[in-house]
Amino acid sequence: MTPQKIIVISGAGSYPRLVVEGAKRAGVPEVHVLAVRGSAERATARAADFVHVEGVGHTLAGVKWVAENGYDGAILAGQINPLSLFRTTFDAETRALLASLRTKCAHSIYGTLVNEFEKRGVKMLAASCYMDGNLPGEGVLTTRAPDEREMKDIERGMVVMQDMGRHDVGQTVLVKDGMVLAVEAFEGTNAAIKRGGKLGGKGAVLVKGAREGHDMRFDIPVVGLKTLKTMKKAGVTTLAFQAGRLILLDRDEVIAFANRQGIALVGMKTDLPPAPLRP
Prior knowledge:
alpha/beta, 6-stranded mixed β-sheet, 10 helices
């Protein structure tokens, strides 16, 4: 059954806009946006039927507002700058919530946020919902496929990435000639790419994915044109990801850019379930 009114909690980038547009194409009559001040883009607001703005420092106020306005579902989409956790002045409620967390990582922070929504009767939908065409499957997307050495590094990276995920460290690992050059921590994918590229030089492989049992309601792996441009500057020549478990933004532009730069993009088969496209 198609929801009648949903809300997209929007961070930065084109991802939230694509969710809004995808939901409308799927027949959702009303698609609203809770825009994170300073992060959500104007294009996302223009695509929505209604927009409410809230600052990162007033997170629980935003949760309460959503709960009071009768939505059939909510979707978390878009990036929040990790620095905001260190530089934002939080209200007393949000500060107390963050202080209650024994460990602070994407999984614990977003997981707690999801729980706050659901405690108030707001159903959180998978972050992949309505992203039809943006979750590539198994196989090579580009004209160039990974060579033999790159495939060995991909295999190494897939194992390391799963181990990282068990500790909720990050979703990205860079490998070259069997050596792990960088693993993503709280700084994000692009910063990890820059570190790994600086260390290993041209030819590194990037592997990105979600651990077994990952909660697809939040923090689903995402790659876009900015990621590919960062890879190019860092000399990273291949991106491997779990088939059906990564959101590829700006798909046509990403593949075209990768082909021009000789970067290989490949979806790797796993035994893990694909991210859902509908509630």
